[in-house]
Specification:
The protein is mainly alpha-helical and 783 residues long. Strands 8-9-11-10 form a 4-stranded antiparallel β-sheet. A 3-stranded antiparallel β-sheet has the order 3-4-5, with helices on one face. The chain has a two-stranded antiparallel ribbon with strand order 1-2. A hairpin with a 4-residue loop joins β3 and β4. The radius of gyration is 30 Å and the shape is globular. 41% of the residues are buried.
Length: 783
């Protein structure tokens, strides 16, 4: 008999009607499929109050359920909920479960009680085997009782396993009330993946989830660290309004808006459309719009590439009508807006308002003044403003150094730029790369190639090199005719996955070979460009054809053969092991690979640019138009193609990830390296962890045994849909020696500093305790 927890004892009665009396709005009249009777009260499967063991997220949700208390769990402190008399109580299906004593057969009561006692003590594999052994007698009502019992004792994972097992049985009939209850409890605990799975199950059955289910799933997504699931939260929020017809409460609007404006301006500017939608819903539902919502919207608009001046003016008017004064943040946003347009009068007017307020002068306001005078052709005035900052004891920040160096470099004030750059370096601030690039562009325009090369050397000694830096240096070498050195640099770019080549660098190298009349090497570069679908400049193509005609050789445009090379196949296998998804494109009848990377990971940022360059010819035209690698999106998909169908058949079964039967034969060093870079982590202790997507115990064992044949002993821990394979001590060192030749340069330091799992693909392991599980992998093994 296995050890059982005392909390697993079955309850004599599960028919109780605790109400989570949330004052949500009732949906407008919409067509609904027939379902269980709805009641004003919400049946709960847990006792009232919050035990000490409840998670932080659960406490947040349960606290927000108290109708007699004012809650500050939203975006701003001191906000008030919408009036209770304007909101109807949430209507949710009641879950009817008979008492155990009501069952007629004694043997059935005994067996159900035994299951309630034993199941919570087991993990996934043994858990399923026990249920499978009861198939001959277990009915849907019996399994429902067991699932609800697990919810009552707060073992929500066990309830989810029971429900998942029920779905696979021939007698299963969808129970909306049970699915709702399981989803709500999982969401409270922060199990967002499992909660979302239950949510999608309801939608597939043609049912609209309850309002509280929408609410709790959004809160759970917003509670994921570092905003990793912000897009998922926005998706559910939009469905809540558009599909469910619900009117979210004020705190939910504010919490989502807060998340949308929580990032830096360069990143958050892409959230403008969603932020405007949240604001629209606040206004149309007659909820209070806080001052920070107006300020946040104006801030987002000020960072757009194309400024909507009319909209900003309208927001400022609405803000004043609401009785709010424009604070420093709004005035700085206004200055940023007008400085981009070169409007000195409006910019200075906003600056004077800041001065009159008597508040501390923000450095960003000085940056806006520098920008506006640069726009009007007065760079020396911008320099005076920068000096004024120092005179007033306002220490220049990174943004102010970037802006003044950019302005002076465009004005080609060499001595001033060099002095500013030296001061920037001596300040020991980070993010020197933009300033170095401005300096090199200035030297390029002035044909000061020796200084450009010296600056290049200084930059790579202080900053992580990137493709733009190398491309500027490459163009300088071609300009001065140093083709031999240019060839070395181009080769380094091509071989270094952290840098890579692109259309511009290949065209530069092609021009270099043509200028040196080395048509044989020029033809090789042309062949590479044709394979990668890079655009060849017309004058270079004409010179190449003319040069080859002298050797009685005619160059013809080559139709690119769409075929995955060996390296691309191995990269794809490594990514699929780490969790990348392949989707079916019904219109073409083929599959597409969807790459998704984490925005908060420096390692993934580097890997994203590398994969974009490596699969460039497989990307649609809209994804190939990025010259600056920093603008490459963190999500992009390939074109639909038959070559991806093989991988879809091997790694997915009915849309769910599985492991191929022959996967153990595909674990080459390059496959392991890309698996590690995408779905792995190197802990500060030196241990290495790999996240494995999909597969049953037998499949995982095949991989572990294959690694063992390479003298790599590992431990395995199962966590939800993922398995964690860990290497410790000498095994981690051996694993690193195998993959090191294929790992991107300087990648190891980035992934070690982050010290957490970075495998991502939308199917993230976002449970609240996943990080702790990764760190405890060496203490547990797969059941």
């Amino acid at each position: 008999m296995a050890f059982t927890s005392p909390r697993a004892a079955p309850s004599p009665s599960l028919r109780h009607t605790l109400a989570l009396s949330l004052h949500f709005s009732s949906p407008p009249p919409v067509l609904r499929l027939a379902g269980p009777k709805l009641f004003a009260g919400r049946l709960a499967v847990s006792p009232p109050g919050i035990p000490a063991t409840a998670s932080t997220l659960e406490s947040l949700v349960l606290d927000s359920d108290e109708e007699d208390e004012e809650v500050d769990s939203g975006l701003f402190q001191g906000e008030e909920w919408a009036a209770a008399d304007e909101r109807d109580a949430v209507r949710s299906p009641e879950l009817e479960v008979p008492e155990l004593e009501e069952l007629p057969e004694q043997w059935r009561r005994s067996r159900i009680a035994w299951l309630c006692k034993e199941l919570p003590a087991y993990k996934h594999s043994t858990f399923t085997r026990i249920l499978n052994a009861q198939r001959k007698w277990l009915t849907q009502d019996d399994a429902t009782y067991v699932a609800v019992h697990c919810l009552r004792i707060r073992d929500n994972d066990a309830a989810f396993r029971v429900y998942s097992w029920m779905v696979r049985q021939h007698w299963f009939r969808f129970n909306f009330a049970l699915a709702t209850r399981v989803a709500d409890c999982l969401g409270r605990e922060g199990k967002v993946d499992k909660c979302r799975e239950m949510f999608e199950a309801m939608v597939k059955q043609g049912r609209v989830p309850a309002e509280f289910t929408f609410h709790i799933l959004i809160v759970a997504y917003l509670s994921v660290p570092k905003g990793r699931c912000l897009q998922e939260a926005c998706t559910i929020y939009n469905q809540m309004i558009q599909m469910g017809g619900y009117k979210p409460r004020l705190s939910l609007h504010n919490s989502l808006f807060r998340a949308l404006v929580s990032k830096t301006g360069g990143t958050a500017k892409y959230n403008l459309r969603q932020a405007e939608f949240v604001y629209h819903n606040l206004v149309t539902t007659n909820l209070d719009v806080q001052k920070d919502v107006y300020a946040g919207l104006i801030w987002l608009h000020s960072y757009q590439d194309v400024i909507d001046r009319v909209r900003i003016i309208a927001l400022r008017k609405e803000m004043k009508r609401a009785g709010f004064d424009e604070g420093i943040d709004v005035l700085v946003s206004v200055m940023r807006t007008f400085s981009k347009e070169g409007n000195v009068q409006e910019t200075e007017a906003a600056w004077n308002e800041i001065l009159q307020s008597g508040s501390d002068l923000p450095a960003q306001a000085y940056v806006c003044r520098m920008e506006v005078y640069a726009q009007t052709g007065e760079p020396m005035k911008s320099l005076d403003i920068f000096k004024e900052m120092k005179e007033k004891n306002i220490p220049p920040n990174v943004a102010s150094y970037h802006k003044i160096i950019e302005i002076m470099a465009k004005a080609q004030e060499v001595d001033i730029v060099e002095e500013l750059m030296n001061g920037f370096i001596k300040s020991h601030m980070k993010h020197l790369m933009p300033a170095f690039l401005d300096l090199m562009y200035m030297y390029m325009d002035l044909d000061m190639h020796e200084k450009l090369e010296l600056t290049f050397s200084k930059c790579i000694a202080r900053c992580r090199p990137n493709r733009i830096l190398y491309t500027i240096f490459l163009e300088s070498l071609v300009k001065v005719g140093n083709i031999e050195k240019a060839e070395e640099v181009f080769g380094e770019m091509h071989s270094n996955g952290m840098i890579g080549t692109n259309t511009k660098s290949c065209n530069i190298m092609l021009r270099g070979y043509l200028s040196a009349e080395d048509y044989q090497k020029a033809e090789k570069v042309y062949d590479v460009m044709s394979k990668k679908k890079y655009d060849v400049q017309a004058d270079s193509l004409e010179k190449l054809q003319s040069g080859l005609l002298l050797g009685k050789k005619v160059i013809k445009p080559k139709a690119a053969s769409m075929k995955l090379d060996q390296e691309q196949r191995e990269i794809l296998i490594g990514f699929l092991l780490g969790g990348t998804r392949i989707k079916y494109y019904a219109q073409r009848g083929f599959h597409v690979v969807h790459f998704q990377f984490q925005e908060d990971s420096n390692a993934h940022s580097v890997l994203r640019a590398h994969i974009h360059e490596r699969f460039f010819e497989w990307l649609p035209s809209t994804s190939r138009s990025f010259d600056d690698e920093s603008k490459i999106p963190y999500q992009f998909s390939t074109i639909p193609h038959k070559h991806f169908s093989f991988f879809a058949d091997q790694f997915f079964l009915k849309g769910q990830p599985v492991l191929p039967k022959l996967v153990h034969r595909w674990l080459s060093p390059r496959v392991l390296a890309y698996w590690f870079m995408f779905g792995g982590s190197k802990l500060p202790s030196g241990d290495i962890v790999l996240k494995l997507s999909g597969g049953n115990t037998e499949s995982v064992e095949r991989i572990v045994n294959s690694l063992h044949t390479q003298s790599l002993t590992s431990k395995v821990k199962r966590k939800g849909r993922f398995s964690w394979i860990g290497f410790q001590g000498s095994n981690a060192e051996s694993f690193w020696r195998i993959i090191e030749p294929h790992v991107l340069n300087n990648f190891a330091s980035s992934i070690t500093q982050e010290g957490s799992s970075i495998g991502s693909d939308g199917a993230q392991d976002t449970d609240t305790d996943s990080d702790n599980d990764m760190q405890r992998y060496d203490k547990e093994s797969d059941e």
